[in-house]
Request: fold
Amino acid sequence: MSGVRRFAAQATGDFGWAEVERLRYKEEGSAPFRDITRQVLFAQPDQACELRYFEIAPGGYSTLERHRHTHAVLILRGRGTVRIADEAHPIAQFDLVTIDPLVWHQFTAADDCDLGFLCLVSKTRDRPQLPGPPEAPAPSSGHDEAA
Reply:
């Protein structure tokens, strides 16, 4: 499917790709997260990967999780932190985050700006694993994960 998909501010004030459906990050109640959406930008039958865009509102965060597959994440806008294993790292526009298999990770937007990023993953991937005692590393963000 050849073509160009335009990145622009939406009427709602959100950023994303025009004419690409904005989806829920996950089903409510399935795992702890706050104020995050996703768009699937590229998923073709003849390709082994999928390119997705995530937008996290100020103070929002993704689920703390791990998988058997790797991630490559390119920060496009905003800033925040990424938790990798038991360390929190500041992230900002154009930073590249790589996450190895079975490493705990979580993205959090700064309190005063959105965090938008591309995520490249395998099209066939395992379901996320959520932490449970005693395997979960101690929380490093200031957010209550039960929220």
